[in-house]
Specification:
single chain, 99 residues, mainly alpha, 0% strand
Length: 99
């Protein structure tokens, strides 16, 4: 039987490098891993977002806290860039909920 460990804090709160917006491991913003999302083509941006979403559950379940913090940071960076480029993106009406 696997023992479950209950924690009252989120991974972001447990990881000392996490400040809510950026993972910091003693590095300046210029030293963080990954290409600046603003420098990516639309095709590369979508590819990177797909890759992060594909690995999300595995990272959440099995990665170290610092790797999870980096994954969260990078996902936020890439998704923010996508939304900035596509503010009027098409919304699928089947995904809407009644208020």
């Amino acid at each position: 039987m696997t023992e479950s460990v209950r924690r009252d804090t989120s991974p972001e709160q447990r990881v000392t490098e996490w400040d809510g917006d950026h993972a910091r491991a003693g590095a300046t913003d210029g030293d963080l891993p990954g290409v600046d999302p603003a420098e990516l083509s639309d095709e590369d941006l979508i590819r990177e977002v797909r890759s992060l979403h594909r690995t999300r559950l595995d990272t959440l379940r099995h990665a170290t806290d610092s790797a999870l913090a980096n994954h969260l940071r990078r996902t936020a960076e890439l998704e923010t860039e996508y939304l900035a480029r596509h503010p009027g993106r098409e919304i699928d009406p089947h995904r809407l909920r009644e208020a």
